[in-house]
Amino acid sequence: MLSDNLPVLFFGRLTGGVSTTLLFSVFEAWMISTYHEQGLQTSSLELSTMFGNMTTLSCAVAIASGVFGDVLVAHSGTRTWPFMAAGLCCVGAAYLISKIWNENYGARSVEQTSWEDLKSGLSAILGDAKILSLGITSCFFEGTMYLFIFFWSAALKSAHTQSGSGDEELPYGLIFSSFMCAMMMGSAMFTLQTSAKTAQSTASILMTVTLLVACCLSLAAMLQHEYLLFWALCLLEGCIGAYFPSMAHLKSELIDDGIRGRVYSILRFPLNVFVVVAHSLDVEGKLTPSQPALFSCFLCTKTEWQCPAFSCCC
């Protein structure tokens, strides 16, 4: 955020990719292993309830962060400050983790090299159809979620402009907080769905929210009215709120503690490949509702109505 040097920006994305992989694998693996080590599965505290409450609390923090970020932008006149504040939060989180957490390696019978870790993780994924199915689901669902993160502001801005509102700036922080409210509602509905969740009931919830997300994305691609588009995206966020605890619960049931961390990390690789491939298909430029871009010119990458030679060169 403070540099326009391309190598620095690439290095930032490299470290961002490493940290995101750790964020979506380390804590969940640590919590499940600790839950089993302390014998909490025999108590009234269910792991699925913990995941639902965790997502709900994370959404509450995100709502407050969105409002706070909007305040920072309004007072500073720049969008850099919220990112700097987030950096301070990361430093504080690193300090608390180093002081509070105890290292948890899971159940390991022998020491393994990194290559052996990788092979055992791949064997666990490819050798179990259920784990492989979860990996495919997480690849496409979470990959789609990342595309949504990249494009929601541009989509709302485009719809806002087409509605005749001019160049008025949208309250992105408040919109983000609204999305987090919808996500919190989704996680709360997952927690309240049943008192005792089985793998089968959780799988049904996961399939339902996957279908709903597909419908929401289809609507978002067709809707041009900014308010309808906003509510379609809110419904999508609600589905994401139900997705995270259901996916985490299923993975906790199917993956052993000893290989959990490496399996989670390996599952992030196809997800990142999906996002990169999807972005490589992007077409720059503004689209109008009366001229949907169905095809792109292979030679100049322009959309069909922008390229005068489209009919002859493609």
Label this structure with key terms.
314 residues, transmembrane, cell membrane, transport, MOT2/MFSD5
Q: Helix amount, in percent? A: over 70%
Major sheet size, sense and barrel closure: none
Low-confidence stretches: 287-314
Percentage of residues in strands: under 5%
Global morphology: globular
What's the end-to-end separation, in Å? 39 Å
Over the alpha carbons, how many angstroms does the gyration radius reach? 22 Å
Give the class from helix and strand content and strand pairing: mainly alpha
**How many individual helices?**
11
Instruction: Give the beta-strand count.
Output: 0
Series of secondary-structure elements, N-terminal to C-terminal = HHHHHHHHHHH
Average residue pLDDT: 78
Short overview:
The protein has 314 residues and is an all-alpha fold.
Task: Describe the secondary structure blueprint for this structure.
Elements: H1 6-23, H2 26-37, H3 47-76, H4 80-100, H5 114-127, H6 129-162, H7 172-193, H8 199-222, H9 226-254, H10 257-280, H11 310-313
Helix pairs in contact: 2-10, 3-4, 3-7, 3-9, 5-6, 5-10, 6-9, 6-10, 7-9, 8-9
Structure commentary:
The protein is built from eleven helices and no strands. The longest helix has about 35 residues. The C terminus is likely disordered. It is an all-alpha fold. It starts with 5 loop residues before the first helix and ends with a helix. The radius of gyration is 22 Å and the shape is globular. This is Molybdate-anion transporter. Mediates high-affinity intracellular uptake of the rare oligo-element molybdenum.
